[in-house]
């Protein structure tokens, strides 16, 4: 039997390097609280500036624009950087691609937009964490990223293949690195 290598190769990590449901839920709660605090501080600054200048316009439009930029900076460039978000730092996590590299700004922006606009909602994403062998959310599966412990190193490399699932009216497929398996004789096969 031949192995399809058309999607290239990807890395995989020890199963203990992937954060579980509670750790991922903690990331969501902590980062949401940080973004809320950023929003409150921005509103206080913009509203104070607006009142000090006796502005005749509603400052909420400026606030939303600045807050969207702040959310993007926090969830995209900061999260993928060495600094990471507050939740990733507190819980000792990082985000990498299926090739073990730092994700691009495009991938991270797409990942953030999937969180905000779907097609998956928060509940489905969290339920999926418990069903996925790599404990990744559907967003991570589709974007091609892994959330792993900060000290995690890949333990292997395998050909990328499409993982397919059919359930509850959904038919989904996403790329995943195939884990190498050992045969009873100790010979490794793909």
Strand content: 15-25%
Structural class, please?
A: alpha+beta
Helical fraction: 40-55%
**Which strand order does the major sheet show?**
1-4-5
Domain RDD: 18-143
Keywords: Cell membrane, Membrane, Transmembrane, Transmembrane helix
Main location: membrane
Transmembrane segments: 25-49, 61-78
Question: What descriptive keywords fit this protein?
Answer:
190 residues; alpha+beta; two-stranded antiparallel sheet; 6 helices; 7 strands; 20% strand
Short structural summary:
The protein is α+β, with helices and mostly antiparallel strands.
Structure description:
The protein is of the alpha+beta class. It has one domain. The chain has helices spanning 21-52, 60-80, 86-90, 105-117, 122-131, 138-143; strands at 9-12, 93-97, 145-149, 156-167, 170-177, 181-182, 188-189. Helix 1 runs antiparallel to helix 2 (60-80) and helix 2 crosses helix 4 (105-117). The radius of gyration is 20 Å and the shape is elongated. The mean pLDDT is 84.
Helix-strand blueprint:
Blueprint: E1 9-12, H1 21-52, H2 60-80, H3 86-90, E2 93-97, H4 105-117, H5 122-131, H6 138-143, E3 145-149, E4 156-167, E5 170-177, E6 181-182, E7 188-189
Antiparallel strand pairs: 1-4, 2-3, 4-5, 6-7
């Amino acid at each position: 039997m031949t192995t399809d290598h058309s999607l290239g190769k990807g890395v995989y990590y020890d199963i203990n390097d992937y954060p579980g449901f509670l750790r991922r839920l903690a990331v969501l709660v902590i980062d949401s609280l940080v973004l809320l605090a950023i929003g409150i501080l921005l509103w206080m600054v913009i509203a104070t500036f607006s009142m000090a200048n006796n502005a005749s316009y509603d400052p909420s439009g400026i606030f939303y624009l600045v807050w969207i930029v702040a959310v993007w900076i926090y969830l995209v460039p900061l999260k993928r950087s060495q600094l990471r978000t507050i939740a990733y730092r507190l819980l000792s996590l990082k985000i990498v691609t299926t090739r073990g590299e730092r994700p691009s700004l495009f991938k991270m922006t797409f990942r953030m937009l999937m969180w905000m606009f779907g097609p998956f909602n928060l509940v489905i994403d969290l339920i999926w964490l418990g069903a996925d062998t790599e404990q990744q959310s559907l967003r991570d599966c589709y974007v091609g990223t892994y959330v792993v412990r900060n000290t995690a190193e890949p333990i292997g490399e395998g050909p990328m293949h499409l993982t397919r699932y059919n359930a509850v009216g959904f038919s989904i497929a996403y790329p995943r690195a195939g884990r190498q398996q050992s045969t009873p004789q100790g010979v490794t096969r793909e």
